Amino acid sequence: MRQRMILARDAAVVVVLIGLALVLLGGLSRQLPPALYGEHGGDAWFEADIPRVLANMTSMASNHYRTKVHPIASIVTHPIVQGMRAIWPGSDIQAALRFILLVAALWVAAFYALCRLIGARWWEAVCFCALAIGSAAFQFWFSVPETFALGSLSLLLTLLVGATAVHRPVSDRLLIAASAMSLSITVTNWVAGLAVAAANRPWRRALRISAIAFAIIAVIAVVQRLLYRLALMFFLGSREELSYVNLAQSGTPLDKLAGMFWSPILAPLPQVKEALAPKLNWVTVQVSPIAADWQGIVSLALWTVLLVAGARGLLRLPQWRRFALVVGVTLASQVVLHLFYGEETFLYAAHFLPLLMVVTVFARHSELGRIAPVMALVAGGMAAFENAETFAFAAAKLTQWSPHLQ
Q1: Nearest of 332, 117, 313, 325 to residue 201 by alpha carbon
Q2: Are 309 and 372 in contact (CB under 8 A)?
Q3: Is 347 strand, coil or helix?
Q4: d(CA 101, CA 96)
Q5: What ranges in 228-348 are assigned the alpha helix state H?
Q6: DSSP-assigned states of every residue in 52-88
Q7: Which of 109, 152, 182, 260 has its CA 20 to 30 Å from the CA of residue 139?
């Protein structure tokens, strides 16, 4: 009976958190100009390819060539978007945004469950969820039709399997599912699935699990290629990605590290790059100052303390060492990758979000103790307002054309 009451309370809390998150994201998405989704939107939103992703979500005939790095994203998203559209009619933009909001709802529910598995009380889990929902990664990338929200969810669910393995034995089938899931949306995220298998099985068995997961995604990719004529297969590689390596405009290693560890929580004030009409101006935060006012500085200071304390808390718990290995290897791989790859590090903030947030939850097991969730709530509240203002600023700048070309 008591267990049922706990589950009922958790379910009610999750519903409230999801409701608040969807209200926030809905308000943010309405600020974006319709032109962002059209052919002139280009890479205006922090280098995101929103018009192409929107087309992939809503049309089989669109160019699905980026499946070479997003293995089965098209065959996952397009049928779901079309199915939701059949139930709830709407435009292409409305259908795609409803799908992203569904992903956001699942993300919040999964993160709350992960907090509880780590040992957080319900009110502590609420505090950490508030920080995640208020973060820049959540606000900026769960309010637009892109693959990063779904990639973030796949990482979070993989971590959820890893955390479950701390409490009880998990089957090979579940590990195969986690590995396949981590590979399904973004190739480089497969590190999480590989790490979960390696941490919970002898190396030969882990290799077998990983090989089966790869084969499953490869077969689905072949089917995807037959259904979506312009789709490419991820296991054939892509030389195009070399053009995104060591770009001068991506700034210094410090700029990139700030984009990995601070910008996912608090977005810097965007800079505007003028584009030739009729294209939209671009917004970027790659070399922007990390905080523009005292609220931003305080929220980032609290976040930094939580992150350091969380790392200490995670490492001091012997039963969580295998999970620490999973998080550490996955995070390290993302850091190394984006020190060299990509022009706008903020573009990948949603992939860093679950890895960073899960570390901060362990701050409650550090010297901070019960102060940690309170710090998370304060940091999240301050960051939420700052990020919402920054989002509005960036959205407004997208509507402005180059003055000398008007």
Answers
A1: 325
A2: yes
A3: helix
A4: 9
A5: 253-261, 294-315, 321-340
A6: HHHHHHH-TTS--GGGGTSTTHHHHHHHHHHHHHHHS
A7: 182
pLDDT tens-digit map of 289-333: 887 788 889 999 999 999 999 999 999 999 999 999 999 999 999
User: Does the pLDDT of residue 400 top 60, yes or no?
Assistant: no
373 pLDDT above the threshold of 60: yes
DSSP-derived secondary structure for 271-303: EEE---TTSPPEEE-TTS-S-SSHHHHHHHHHH
Q: 74 with 97: CB under 8 angstroms? A: no
Contact predicate 178/157, CB 8 Å:
yes
Contact 377, 295 (CB under 8 A): no
**How far apart are the C-alpha atoms of 342 and 256, rounded to whole Å?**
9
Q: In the block, which residue shows the tokens 């396949």?
A: 180
First to last CA, the chain: 68
- Whole-angstrom CA distances from 220 to 66, 150, 173, 206, 225 are 15, 17, 17, 21, 9
Rounded distance, CA 287 to CA 270, Å? 9
Tokens matching residue 383: 């960051």
Q: Which residue has the tokens 């010297």?
A: 367
Contact (Cβ atoms closer than 8 angstroms) between residue 16 and residue 105? no
Report, as an integer, the average pLDDT of 239-247: 81
Looking from the CA of 222 toward its CB, the CA atoms found within 13 Å total 5
Taking 3-state DSSP, the helix, strand and coil percentages for the chain, each rounded to the nearest 5, stand at 75, 0, 25
Question: How far apart are the C-alpha atoms of 267 and 369, rounded to whole Å?
Answer: 28
Cβ–Cβ < 8 Å for 265, 136: yes
What tokens does 190 get?
């497969």
Please give the pLDDT value at position 406.
38
In this structure, what token pair is assigned to residue 292?
């523009």
pTM greater than the 0.85 cutoff: yes
Burial 201-217 (b: 16+ CB within 10 A, else e): beeeebeebbebbbebb
Comparing CA positions, the residue from 218, 174, 166 lying closest to residue 197 is 174
Measure the CA–CA gap between 382 and 299, rounded to whole angstroms: 6
Q: Is 10 exposed, middle or buried (0-12, 13-18, 19+ CB in 10 A)?
A: middle
- 236 class by beta-carbon count within 10 Å (0-12 exposed, 13-18 middle, 19+ buried): exposed
